[in-house]
Design a protein that fits this description.
Blueprint: H1 2-22, H2 27-64
Keywords: Membrane, Transmembrane, Transmembrane helix
Transmembrane segments: 26-42
Length: 65
């Protein structure tokens, strides 16, 4: 279901990009897409950091058990 929403969102971005390019406002979609990708990368990085922190805590707990 999540992939369907992503696909629909990308389709909407493509249509919006074409519309804005016709109006000579092509930089706006690139700004919005860059913000979106920055948020995605930040979420993945924070998940990865949280996951590695949990593993380190488990290793410390196992050493002292």
């Amino acid at each position: 279901m999540k992939r369907i929403f992503v696909f629909i969102g990308l389709l909407g971005v493509c249509i919006g990009t074409v519309y804005l390019y016709q109006r000579q406002l092509g930089a706006i979609p690139f700004l919005l897409i860059s913000i979106y990708f920055f948020i995605l990368a930040y979420k993945q990085l924070s998940k990865k950091t949280n996951h590695s922190d949990d593993e380190e805590k488990e290793k410390k707990n196992n050493r002292y058990s």
